[in-house]
Design goal:
Order of helices and strands: EEHEEHEHEHEHHEHE
CATH architecture: Alpha-Beta Barrel
Number of strands: 9
Distance between the termini: 30 Å
Shape: globular
Structural class: alpha/beta
Bound molecules: iron/sulfur cluster
Length: 208
Amino acid sequence: MKAMKIFYDLNGALYANITNKCPCNCTFCIRHNDETVGENDSLWLEHEPTVEEIMDAFDEVDASKYDEVVFCGFGEPMERPWELIEAAEYIKRRTGMKIRINTNGLVSLMHPTFDLYSMRGVIDSVSISLNASDPEKYLEITKSRFGLPSYNSMLNFAIITHSFIPDVKLTVVDVIGEEEVEKCRRRAADIGVPLRVRAYISNNREYD
Ligand code: SF4
């Protein structure tokens, strides 16, 4: 049986892939476009790895080559927030590495009982896909199964995490056009969270 690719190197950064699940179906998602990244192995996990499997896989990594682990899977990493926090605590305890999460910011809809403040002291940075300047456009892009409330939930996640995590950013890709990027800038400024405008790369959506 082929080993599961939980940790992988892409352009010199270390990524962690802990789930196939996601409540969205974004038009530009790597899941539609290409099943491969990095070394051309599929990131599709043959099962959702346990925390022990994640920790064992991390033990196989030459961690000395990296200073940060980015949870950014083939699916949405915050689909498994408790497992993510436990694995991140292990990595931090063992190596002192920084921990980043690239997320859609919908954890409070996916898992309403998850305590956002359990990220404190474990997660160093969070990159949240803003995607659009209003709930309707957001839903058009993400097709979130939670519908229109998704947008405000994502913004609330950004506001709350920004209050206690050192580095929290919203991101948009530049393909949405200059006018929409400008509106996104205003939206991010409204809630006081920095915005990063990223160049769109077809099979590389969240991997930076
Ligand atoms: S939230 Fe991320 S993983 Fe989920 S469909 Fe959108 S781009 Fe893909």
